[in-house]
Amino acid sequence: MSIVTLVLPDFLLIALGWCLLHLLKYKAEFFTTAEKLVYFVLFPALLFVSIARAPLSPGDASALILATLTLMACGVALAWLAGPVLKADPSVQASLAQCAYRFNTYMGLSISLSLAGKDGQSVMAIIVGCAVPLANIAAVTGLAKRQDTRILSELFRNPLIVATVAGLMCNLSGIELPAFAMDTLQRLGACAIALGLICVGATLSLDGLRAAAHVMSWMISVRLLIMPVVALAIAWLFPLAPLEQQMLLLFSTLPTASSAYILAVRMGGDGRSVAATTSLITLLSALTIPLWLHFSPF
Q: N or C: which end of the chain has fewer CB within 10 A?
């Protein structure tokens, strides 16, 4: 099966979300409610089950976590480098910086399953779970200037971080939940990816594309072009298994999460520019993801 065929179902689900909103006239409130369900219930269940059941030892976990955090740190640094280089407006810079290092978790877990089965999805769940705290810290810190924002409170209440920590603790300690509980969580998680991708499609918008074009171009280049190169270098340097190297590369190619727009609006940033940049990155990733995966050495 070709790489294009593997990623096509995810983009068809995104297209379905756009059609439901714009052509079939579903109400925007439907997608807002559905996204909350995915974010607070369905997706944490999927993360927990995937991590708790992953064949993982403390040594394997430490190498993969370190590689993931290194990749994320590079993405954050490259995003903030746009400030001094482009002399960007601080508010625009803080808002758009997220687009360079935040990632679409739904696509990551969906494509990893298609590409490498349950083992690949388990590795991707660990990568995603480790990257979520750093992405949130960087995004909230950048947008929190002159605001009374409690970063630690944001992190401790994040359902994805809670699910990741709980999954790792159960995995590494050998604690097993009752079979009925794991089966319930697995069935909840099975709903997360399709519904999450449909909600992504409903958020696509290119309004505000002309604003801060130079900063947008920088973030798009970092997200789709530079981050995969960095991932390839990290995969070569770190003692990772071939499957972990492949999943790290896939992770680096993912488009920006739509939650970047939500955070920018909630914290008084430039929401329109973030929405336009996120949408454009998502559309372009339909080309870049197959290319990176096709020509990768893994």
A: N
Cα separation, 115 vs 107, whole angstroms? 12
pLDDT tens-digit profile of 20-54?
A: 999 999 999 999 899 889 988 998 998 899 888 87
Spatial neighbors of 256 by CB under 8 A, at least 6 apart, are 98, 99, 100, 102, 103, 104, 223, 277, 278, 281, 282
Q: How many domains does the chain have?
A: 1
C-alpha 102/C-alpha 76 separation (Å) is 9
The pLDDT tens digits for 254-292 are 999 887 877 777 777 788 888 889 999 999 999 999 999
Full domain range(s) for residue 201? 3-295
Neighbours of 252 (CB within 10 A): 26
